[in-house]
């Protein structure tokens, strides 16, 4: 009885102390629905960052960060908005890590975050529309926009001295979006797109499609397709008819099976794929695998979730305030560091050190698990690996 | 030089692919037309018979390769063909025994046999997927090119490449041999003559002592052989995927109907008509025209009548036009 009493007194004292300085952060992702297999790792990563900050005890004013989870369902905007509304009004969160899928993220941003003035950092919304949506400076994302790859492709092509391209894409939303941005950026940067035609996957014969591409001509054929589907068929049919001999291979076409299937004729073709060379990636993987309840930080968008949570907390530290209207202006500064590159680089596991540096008035450059570098009005530039096919293998040239 | 370039571009993107595709369709249509002529129904299961036979040819090809047997520069699948034909012939004779014979003895209307063949089609569809799966299989080996595009460019000094894939050449040669052998068989042998007699007038043929069971069996075996050869050539030249063979049914029937159902000569002509119409209507003529016409006449367009997505719409349109205006086809079928 005595023990129990003591324990409950201790408990209430502890929770009382914590209550006073609790700062709630919302984790608003689709725990049910289309990406429910990814979200447990995403939430675990975001909460890992909070636990790390809490354990360091270095946060200003003794802040103790507490996670409040909410479900977006990935697709149902009404449910996502209700969850966000509850977080903001009932739980009083000071920032939201989320949303996840682009559609619900846009809805929450316009209908909940902006009216209430809450900062949102999405780890996984990649729609280009979010770059131009009105956000009052409240919205950031640690995943690059889908449009970014188009820009990178245009840069790589121009570096190779390509002046005109023929472009074919798989007849899906993915292929259509990809080709649209490749075409847009390549044209803007002074190149010429001779043709932008779709191809259907799962056909036996692509000679007719290739004949049309050949008729339009171009220095190189950009194949925005899938490597084990129509993309492969298009390349094979081009080589078989001698229509094109060099190909540009965007993300969907990079894999070991393609050079093996096509053979030596693919040597000299080049391409890119989203891939981070950040040191922090391995660090986070190491940390997350040694936890009491380990999770896989290499699961899609888990590293981005860790970075989103860390950015919010570091920005609060820099602003000395948990008020979103105040700390929102610090997010870019934390993510990129000062323009002269003097900021100290911060990897996962070094959040305590970062808090200390900020408190001491020193500049930091948060790299995190994904090599965070924000462009435009607060979205990740993303990292892309340039690849060249050599001796029937994909070889990395450099990172963009 | 410009005229030569235009000619080579025409050969490379229209004539060579059209000829290979046409030969594959012609062989398929011959099988359909034979069944229609002798057994008097449209066999909807023909596309899946092609897929079934080709699946076994692929399995035998793998087996041969694992034993180190190959046909040198030619595809190993040619060696596996007879075995694939044997398995398929046994299977279609089995289906005839189990399904079609019952309706034939009851003298059922042709439409009932057609529906029964649709049922057989679905069963074969499933069987093929169970045997070899739904994924794409590439089983072409041996030399890839008879005429390499780069080699041709260097030899001729032209701007346009000309490529002839060895599989395309094999297709045309094998198709020519098959057609010659089939016509010799139908015109010169006793069994062939009895098949034609049975096709022309069943009652009269029966009266003159022709064994109907034997005619039916021989027809099935020949149709199976043609289906397997057509399927294998198509798979070698393009790629093998069971679903594709199901969709091949449309151009094959269009070819048979255009030529005149029941007429072997018509099936061959129909195959090439359908293949070349598909290629000609969906080809972008800008390249050829670019060599022949002054530059300022061209404009920005690709000079393409229909997008390549509408390839099957071409054979469908031809099928409908022929059925409306010339239901018996070019060679006066049935």
Write the layout of secondary structure elements.
The complex is a heterodimer of chains A (400) and B (334).
Chain A: H1 2-21, E1 22-29, H2 39-56, E2 64-71, H3 77-91, E3 95-98, H4 102-116, E4 119-122, H5 129-132, E5 139-141, H6 146-159, E6 164-170, H7 173-188, E7 192-199, H8 207-216, E8 220-224, H9 230-241, E9 247-249, H10 257-262, E10 270-274, H11 279-289, H12 302-319, H13 324-327, H14 331-336, E11 344-346, H15 351-359, E12 364-366, E13 374-375, E14 379-380, E15 384-390, E16 393-399
Chain B: H1 2-39, H2 46-66, H3 77-105, H4 110-132, E1 145-147, H5 149-156, E2 164-165, H6 166-188, H7 190-200, H8 202-207, H9 212-237, H10 242-247, H11 249-259, H12 264-282, H13 286-292, H14 311-325
Antiparallel strand pairs in B: 1-2
What is the compact description of this entry?
Chain A: This is ABC transporter substrate-binding protein. The complex is a heterodimer of chains A (400) and B (334). Chain A is of the alpha/beta class.
Question: Can you walk me through this structure?
Answer:
- Chain B: Belongs to the binding-protein-dependent transport system permease family. LivHM subfamily.
- Chain B: It is found in: Cell membrane.
- The complex is a heterodimer of chains A (about 400) and B (about 325).
- Chain A has 15 helices and 16 strands.
- In chain A, the strands form four sheets. Chain A has a seven-stranded mixed beta sheet, with helices on both faces. Chain A has a five-stranded parallel beta sheet with strand order 2-1-3-4-5, with helices on both faces.
- The N and C termini of chain A lie far apart (about 65 Å).
- With about 400 residues, chain A is an alpha/beta fold.
- Chain B has one domain.
- Helix content of chain B is about 75%, strand content about 0%.
- Chain B has a two-stranded antiparallel sheet with strand order 1-2.
- Chains A and B meet through β7, α8 and α9 of A and α1, α5 and α12 of B.
